[in-house]
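Input structure tokens:
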């Protein structure tokens, strides 16, 4: 029998994710954790990292790495109250690095938390009725949902479904409460995990719900997805999607990004049963020997969609119906004010790379804090690293607008389409997987792309650019019209040809390019686009139609 991946033994022997985490956290000798505990910590919503900018200096000083921790919140559908925002802000300033990071999974991350501040951080979140359970690691992670759940009653119903999914797919172990909140210690056999078993899932598992015509969660990038089917204003069910995922490994053709398949239709009351069936099928049939081949996308690709659907139907106890018609028109956010069905208003603001911090000329952390102090509604994080001030009464809009203007919180909203829609992962200096810069490089990159676009007279044409420091794909570069994927310091793979609906993969165009080379390559494509664009055609569509990339008949799409 093929040996299991090493982490499988760590999970199986952990007594419900306990391991020796409590002892590691209490150890005053080191700022880090025991090696096995770093793996278990992920399933509790945190990663051990170090400041890579200081790594060589500390090594020369014969010091251990400057260990710090990233902590990620569980916020189904990205919703938090104003009081919770204030609690999150206080944690950032007290225990983290004085900034908030909005992620592409519709939640917050803290960076720079010392080991001694882990338990105070978790306690502060718990006091604000939040947690970090199952936001990292081999479990179902934060559930995404279309970002404005009060646009219509059906949107509200979808948001409630996201909450139900999140709760239903949570691990049952009490280890988090024991370790971080000083809960009662377990004596004897660990709790039963009816969904996960003692080894949990073979790999991470991501779930999303989208409401057409907006694919603002990039649904087809998720292991498990639900497309809301709304008839006469009522949510009647979902089209199920399975097998999406964007992670890959440089130079390994056996790993690849994949769009989810549309598998069939289910009624609303079948949501939890089908989600559970998909998750447990992956639990039992996913690859536990090779973590690079362990995502659900490989299970579906290897065994076939028909086999997978039959197994899900058997476990769920009913057959899926034929998929119902749907249409997506955009995977971006809508900025400015939008009125909801309840007469309240919602304002989406652009947050470049999702980073909210006070800088010498942009007091955004302070500005959002002041908004939270006066806001009577809630906040919504989007899967595009933006934030919505939601549930504003018409009479309160002037006060909200005054604070937005005072702290220039709408400065990025008025930027050109390139800056409005660009995404980047955190990358250096904290992410241990990063091979190149992403978030810190994004402003410089966008400035140089702007010069090229302006030269060709197309600066106001929408264009989706996404940058990651490694091929793991956290900022979804494989769905971008232009995707840069870090290969080495200052060098990137260039992916081209994604669409504006999140339904077509970009293709690897050229590998291991430095900045002058990929800018020259893009300049040629921009020149051709400016000269040959048909009507309101998008850049990614033009590249396929004109034959500048791939073969138009071979474009991988999800329809």
């Amino acid at each position: 029998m093929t040996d299991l991946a090493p982490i499988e033994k760590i999970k199986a022997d952990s007594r419900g994710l306990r391991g020796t985490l409590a002892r590691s956290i209490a150890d005053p000798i080191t700022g880090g954790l025991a090696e096995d505990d770093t793996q278990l910590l992920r399933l509790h919503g945190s990663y051990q990292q170090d400041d890579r900018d200081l790594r060589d200096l500390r090594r020369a000083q014969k010091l251990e790495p400057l260990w710090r921790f990233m902590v990620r919140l569980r916020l189904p559908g990205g919703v938090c109250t104003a009081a919770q925002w204030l609690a999150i802000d206080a944690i950032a300033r007290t225990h983290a690095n004085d900034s908030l990071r909005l992620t592409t999974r519709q939640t917050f991350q803290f960076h720079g938390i010392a080991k001694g501040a882990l338990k105070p951080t978790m306690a502060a979140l718990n006091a604000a009725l939040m947690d970090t359970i199952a936001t990292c690691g081999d479990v179902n992670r934060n559930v995404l949902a279309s970002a404005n759940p009060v646009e219509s009653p059906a949107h509200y119903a979808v948001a409630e479904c996201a909450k139900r999914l999140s709760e239903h797919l949570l691990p049952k172990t009490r280890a988090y409460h024991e370790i971080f909140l000083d809960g009662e210690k377990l004596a004897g056999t660990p709790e039963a995990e009816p969904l996960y078993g003692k080894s949990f899932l073979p790999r991470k598992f991501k779930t999303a719900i989208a409401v057409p015509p907006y694919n603002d969660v990039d649904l087809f990038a998720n292991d498990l997805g639900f497309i809301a089917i709304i008839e006469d204003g009522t949510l009647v069910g979902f089209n199920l999607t399975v097998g999406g995922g964007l992670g890959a490994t440089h130079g390994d053709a056996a790993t690849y990004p994949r769009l989810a398949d549309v598998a069939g239709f289910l009624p609303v009351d079948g949501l939890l049963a089908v989600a559970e069936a998909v998750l447990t099928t992956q639990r039992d049939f996913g690859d536990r020997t090779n973590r690079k081949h362990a995502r659900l996308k490989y299970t579906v690709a290897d065994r076939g969609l028909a086999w997978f659907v039959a197994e899900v139907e058997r476990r769920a106890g009913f057959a899926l119906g034929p998929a119902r018609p749907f249409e997506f028109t955009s995977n971006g956010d809508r900025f400015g004010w939008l009125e909801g069905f309840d007469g309240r208003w919602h304002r989406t603001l652009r947050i470049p790379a999702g980073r909210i911090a006070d800088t010498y000329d942009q007091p955004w952390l302070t500005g959002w804090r002041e908004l939270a102090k006066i806001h009577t509604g809630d906040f919504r994080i989007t899967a595009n690293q933006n934030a919505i001030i939601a549930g504003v009464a018409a009479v309160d809009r002037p006060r909200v607008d005054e604070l937005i203007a005072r702290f220039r919180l709408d400065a990025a909203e008025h930027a050109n389409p390139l800056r409005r829609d660009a995404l980047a992962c955190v990358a250096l200096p904290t992410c241990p997987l990063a091979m190149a810069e992403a978030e810190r490089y994004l402003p410089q990159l966008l400035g140089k792309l702007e010069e090229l676009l302006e030269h060709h007279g197309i600066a106001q044409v929408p264009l989706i650019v996404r940058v990651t420091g490694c091929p793991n794909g956290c900022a979804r570069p494989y769905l971008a019209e232009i995707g840069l994927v870090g290969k080495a310091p200052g060098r990137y793979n260039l992916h081209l040809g994604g669409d504006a609906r999140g339904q077509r993969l970009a293709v690897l165009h050229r590998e291991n390019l430095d900045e002058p080379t990929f800018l020259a390559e893009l300049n040629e494509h921009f020149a051709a686009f400016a000269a040959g664009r048909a009507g309101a055609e998008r850049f990614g569509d033009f590249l396929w139609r004109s034959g500048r990339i791939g073969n138009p008949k071979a474009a991988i799409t999800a329809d």
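The mean pLDDT is 96. Residues 515-532 form the longest helix (18 residues).
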